[in-house]
Amino acid sequence: MMTIAMGAFTTNDALIKSITLDLNIAQIIFLRGLATAVILAAMAWSYGILGQFRVMFNRAVILRSGFEIGATITYISALSHIDLSVAATILLSLPLAVTFGAWAFFKEPVGWRRWLAIIVGFIGVIIILKPSPEAFVPASLLAVITVFFTAGRDLTTRRINAGIPTLLVSLFAGLTNTVFGAVLIVPMGGWMPVSSHSVMIIIVAACFIIAGYLSIIGAMRTGDISFIAPFRYTSLIFSLSLGYYLFQERPDGYMTLGASLIVASGLYAFYREKQRARETPAAKSTQTPN
To answer: Which one, 69, 84, 106, 222, has the greatest CB density within 10 A?
Structure first.
């Protein structure tokens, strides 16, 4: 289910990238948000939870949606200027950013090995960015900003009351994206004519992003997180494949080296997290008096 989620999210990204030259970025956010909100509202109604809409106006839900808006704007803007595979690979550093954020804001302990993994992972991001005057693409920094917005979203999600239905949390995000997309249309270039082809692309993209949400929720709720989390990196396979076949993208040496460092450091961080989870109960048991 985690692999399906990564495939769905990456396909959504590829579809959105394919129309970034035809439509205003804010217009894309508005139309996809609208399609997503309509589909999620219909699903919430079918499950009989739409009447609980007041729970969406929870402070944590609102903050999460703010981070979601920031991530959406920066990532779609990045996709309009850089390769899909590059943007997706930079986003693979998300688990490392979440670990850093958990330490910075929630004082969660991080050992030196995981600190080392975080540093190596971000070195991989720097390599992908090609920080030289000749090769550096400023728009790639938008993908880096997306990582931190998304980390904020994920960390805030942990603070949402478990009693608030996931569908309603996602619905609120879709609604806020729709509103902010509409507000930004004029500042970001104005309304552009929308072809039937673009409408179909956006509707299909909305379906894929919802499939991704549902799949990743199912994976998190039914599987051992320490086992399934590394399957996030299957998104690299999808992004490289779709980038190659749809946009004729060819990864270079910087991309290959940077991606290797990000994936290796992320997998090691997951491994250390699993080891720490096993060691903590053992340490507590040795302290228990007989």
So the answer is: 84
